[in-house]
Write a structure and sequence with these properties.
There is one protein chain. By secondary structure, the chain is α+β, with helices and mostly antiparallel strands. It has a single domain, classed as BolA-like (GMP Synthetase, Chain A, domain 3), CATH 3.30.300. 44% of the residues lie in helices and 25% in strands. The chain contains four helices and three strands. A three-stranded mixed β-sheet has the order 1-2-3. The model has no long low-confidence stretch (mean pLDDT 96).
């Protein structure tokens, strides 16, 4: 069963994050990702960026489902 901390490690290896948390039940996961690298990108482009980081995990079947909320640091502070 996949540990949410492992997904955090994979994302953090491919994206500089100001905040990153992943929760899940071993099969379905939800991530909150805050990165200045999201500046100027819409929601779809941000998710594509994360999906590209995790592509090999999805392709292998190791990771099946990840819902995500993506924010710039400014958006995160505004929602805080």
């Amino acid at each position: 069963m996949l540990d949410p901390k492992q997904i955090e490690t994979w994302i953090a290896a491919g994206l500089r994050c100001e905040h990153l948390s992943v929760d899940g039940d071993g099969h379905h996961f939800a991530a909150v990702i805050v990165s200045s690298e999201f500046a100027g990108l819409n929601r779809v482009k941000r998710q594509q960026r994360i999906n590209a980081i995790l592509k090999s995990r999805f392709d292998s079947g190791e990771l099946h489902a990840l819902s995500m909320q993506t924010f710039t640091p400014e958006e995160w502070k505004a929602n805080g």
